[in-house]
Amino acid sequence: MNEGVFSINQSNKKISLGQKQQYKICSFSGKNALNSQLMWGHYANAGLGIVIEVEVNNCKNIKEVVYSDKYSSLDSIEKILTHKTTEWQYEHEFRYLSIDANNEEK
User: Fold this and answer.
1) Is residue 34 part of a domain?
2) Is 4 among the domain residues?
3) Number of compact structural domains in the chain
4) Inside any domain, residue 60
5) In a domain, 68, yes or no
6) Element (H, E) at 29
7) Is residue 60 a contact partner of residue 92, using CB atoms and an 8 Å limit?
8) β-pair type (62-64, 23-29)
């Protein structure tokens, strides 16, 4: 799935695997994913699963995933962790990002 993949360039060359591993991530799908047969097939036991609606108000830690096949503009850990290639666009994903205080890089 290439989660967290990025191309090293001048603006992100100091990002390390350790920095990325500090983050805890929880993924959610937006309403647009409800009618996706791919979503039901991949994540809901071939359509036998259920949907649980979660309403979130004003949470700065929830970021909408950007779908693009360009990696050159990924110049921060947050951008890397909220980027996926366009083939995954049907997921209409949002991610809650939190830094794990117990796993901070020294």
Assistant:
1) yes
2) no
3) 1
4) yes
5) yes
6) strand 23-29
7) no
8) unpaired
How is residue 94 written in tokens?
């949002």
- 44, 74 contact by CB (below 8 A): no
Q: What is the chain's pLDDT, residue by residue, as a tens digit (106 residues)?
A: 556 666 666 566 677 777 778 888 899 999 888 888 888 888 888 788 888 888 888 889 999 999 988 877 787 888 888 999 999 999 999 999 998 766 554 4
Count of C-beta atoms within a 10 Å radius of residue 45: 10
Q: Decide the pairing of beta strands 93-99 and 23-29.
A: antiparallel
- Structural domain containing residue 38: 17-103
Contact by Cβ (8 Å): 25, 100: no
Distance CA 59, CA 36 (A): 26
pTM, to two decimals: 0.77
Tell me the one-letter amino acid at 69. D
